[in-house]
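request received
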Amino acid sequence: DAGVIQSPRHEVTEMGQEVTLRCKPISGHNSLFWYRQTMMRGLELLIYFNNNVPIDDSGMPEDRFSAKMPNASFSTLKIQPSEPRDSAVYFCASSFGATTSNEKLFFGSGTQLSVL
Amino acid sequence: DQQVKQNSPSLSVQEGRISILNCDYTNSMFDYFLWYKKYPAEGPTFLISISSIKDKNEDGRFTVFLNKSAKHLSLHIVPSQPGDSAVYFCAASADGAGTALIFGKGTTLSVSS
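response:
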C-alpha cells in the first residue's frame, strides 16, 4: 500500500487566495483526520470523518476552513480566503475501525502551506 | 488549553545513553496513550502505546511508563542511537468518548555520536 497520499507537498499562495489540500487515505481505512502542525500549538486536530461523515469539526479554526469527504478514498481541506496565520504544515491521517481511540493513525507526508 | 503537555521542547543525549521524554495530561478521561516519532519532511509514525490498565509497555529499546495518579507518562529509549534523532509526540485519547487523538507539542530529541 502506498500509504496516505497528500497533495500538494508545498503550497505558496497570497493572502486572500483559496487553497485546497487533498488527501487519499489508505484503502480500507474508515476514519480520516486533518491535523495542523505549528510551532506554537504543535499538532492540533482540525476535523475527523468516520465512514465519510464528519464526526468532530470543533477544531476547525473558523468559517474560512471547510473539509469534505465525498467518498472513502478522497478528502479535501479548503481555506477561503487564506491568511498568513494559516501558514503551517497540514497533515492528513487515516485509521482502520469505527472508533478512533485505540487505532493507530497513519499519517501522510503533509502539505507545507505558506500564505504570503 | 493544552490537554497533553510536553514541557521540554528539546533534549540532547549522547549515543548509548538513556533518553527520557516526558508527557503530562490533564484530562482524567484519557485511557489510551501513544507516542509518535517524526522525521523532517515526513509525517508522524506510530512508535509505542499503552492502555490505562497498564503501567508499563516495552518494545525493544523503547519503554513507556504510565503514572495515572500523577497523570504523567514517559518514554525511555535505551540505548539511544543517532537514528533516534527526531521529534517525539505524545498523544492521548478517551475511548468511551470516541474522540480523536490529542497530541502534545512535541519534543525534539538529538542523539549525538
